[in-house]
Amino acid sequence: MGEEILQGESMEEILQGEAMEISLKDLSKKLEEFAKARDWEKFHSPRNLLLAMVGEVGELSEIFQWRGEVDKGLPNWEESDKEHLGEELSDVLLYLIRLADICGIDLGDAAAKKIVKNAIKYPPKVTF
Ligand SMILES: [Mg+2]
């Protein structure tokens, strides 16, 4: 049995992708538990989290740096490069979720409302 690293899930379950049906709220709760368990909450101010996220955006950008244009689906990439990309995308997402939580923003709700707002601002082309 794997070591319990997050409440209710073992490391094996997570690594095998058995915990994939997960909501933004679930991730937010896990990040809160993660910070609490390590006494890192004192470091999680909005500004610190924003700067950490920007740092992760830099790490994400490095993956694409010097590659030129990249085809959708990344057909010519090594699996290890794709795995690295997934990790850096996750770092950005997790800091974004934590930042939203610490700021008291319901990110799922805000994002859904923003899509509606964008749809009104940019209506689809109607052809007759
Ligand atoms: Mg990173």
TrEMBL record:
InterPro entries per the UniProt record, alphabetical: DCTPP, MazG-like_dom
Domain NTP pyrophosphohydrolase MazG-like stretches: 45-118
Subcellular location: Cytoplasm, Cytosol
UniProtKB keywords: Cytoplasm, Hydrolase, Magnesium, Metal-binding
Any one GO biological process: dCTP catabolic process
Cofactor(s) essential for the protein: Mg(2+)
Protein name: dCTP pyrophosphatase 1
Organism lineage string: Eukaryota, Viridiplantae, Streptophyta, Embryophyta, Tracheophyta
